[in-house]
Amino acid sequence: MTDDLLTTERLGDVLILTLNRPSALNALNPPLMLAIEAFGRAMLEDPARVLVIRGAGRHFCAGADLKAKASDASLVQRRRNAQLGGRMLRAIIDIPQVTIAAVQGAALGGGLCIPTACDFRIAADTAIGGYPEVNLGMNLMWQSVGLCTRLVGAARAKRMIMLGERFDAQTLVNWGLWDEAVPEDQLMERALALAKTYAEQPPIAVQMIKQTINQISGALDQAILHMDADQNLLTGSSQDRALAIQGFLASKPTEFTGD
Ligand code: COA
After folding, report:
1. What DSSP designation does 44 have?
2. To which H or E segment does residue 241 belong?
3. What is the Å distance from ligand 1's center to 172 Cα?
4. Against a cut of 0.85, is the pTM above it?
5. What is the pLDDT of residues 127-138, one digit of tens each?
6. Which of 47, 118, 185, 199 is the most buried (most CB within 10 A)?
7. What is the pLDDT of residues 90-107, one digit of tens each?
């Protein structure tokens, strides 16, 4: 499959999906998120045994598109739109096949949520990862707080999500967020070697185990985190958020007031 925003390449039992919006650092605007959601659902019909997700260009993904136009839709529609990221991540989590993220450059915000929704994460040793949402006056949404917390533990998740720091690859390996870090020029080679190992496993057993572990570890996610989109509408209506976006566009720090 090839279109503007996503491209795929098939290598035997392994399918490679590339986020293909490199001119915007693969920032996640609604069309790209809708395409990923539809792609994830379509994997139910795909014969591949392993999916590798990567980003085109220098960066895996710079997160939500901060230059996307503010919506003038009704509140009821904006509420549904705010749930798109959660639906996209759910579609990735629900892919029956083994999923591996191969991450280079920056994986920030939603761009880090995608790897955490995969089964395995290989990073270039030069990659950086983090959740800058809080510095933009926003909560981390897309039902991804649980995904991060389960990988790194509550204290580190708080440090990552409440402080919005960016971390180097080795730190995130030590914390369990990346499974491993490899030299950047070996990233795809290593991801594909791992993919081949998983592709050789019995797919029925592997896919059942994946589903069970996902259900055990994420059982409460949908019960609790469905409201994070509503929280985002709240933070999105704050003055702090507006100032933070102005600050991002002008490359200036923001002084938050709590309004
Ligand atoms: N949405 C929209 N545009 C973005 C973006 C995003 N999330 N992240 C970066 N860009 C834009 C930059 O504004 C810049 O645009 P310009 O060329 O018109 O000035 C362009 O992409 C290149 O960014 P630049 O910062 O020069 O690239 P870099 O390679 O030096 O750094 C990042 C890359 C990802 C580390 C850096 O751009 C960054 O920190 N981006 C913000 C990430 C973020 O806060 N995401 C929010 C998630 S809620």
Report:
1. G
2. helix 239-250
3. 21
4. yes
5. 999 999 999 999
6. 118
7. 999 999 999 999 999 999
How many CA atoms does the CB half-sphere of 55 hold within 13 Å? 31
CATH class, 6-199 region: alpha beta
Tell me the best of 33, 60, 66 to mutate to test the pocket of ligand 1, counting ligand atoms within 8 Å of each CB and taking the most: 66
In this predicted structure, what is the pLDDT of residue 2?
A: 41
> What spacing in Å lies between the alpha carbon of 49 and ligand 1's midpoint?
34
Task: Give the Cα separation of 157 and 164 in Å (integer).
Answer: 10
Ligand 1, atom 36, residue with closest C-alpha: 62
Determine the Cα–Cα distance for residues 70 and 21; give it in Å rounded to an integer: 20
pLDDT bin (cut points 50, 70, 90) of residue 3 is low
Average pLDDT over residues 204-218: 97
d(CA 44, CA 38) in angstroms, rounded, equals 11
Token digits of residue 200: 């050789």
110 Cα to the center of ligand 1, angstroms: 13
Whole-angstrom distance, CA of residue 244 vs CA of residue 183: 34
Q: In testing the pocket of ligand 1, which one of 25, 103, 235 has its CB within 8 Å of the most ligand atoms? A: 25
Domain ranges of the chain: 6-199
Give the Cα separation of 173 and 194 in Å (integer): 17
- Report the atom number in ligand 1 closest to the C-alpha of 65: 1
- Entry field: residues in the chain: 259
Between β-strands 128-130 and 166-168, what pairing exists: parallel, antiparallel or unpaired?
Answer: antiparallel
- Over residues 15-59, the pLDDT tens digits come to 999 999 999 999 999 999 999 999 999 999 999 999 999 999 999
What six digits make up the tokens of 90?
A: 């759910």
Element (H, E) at 21: none
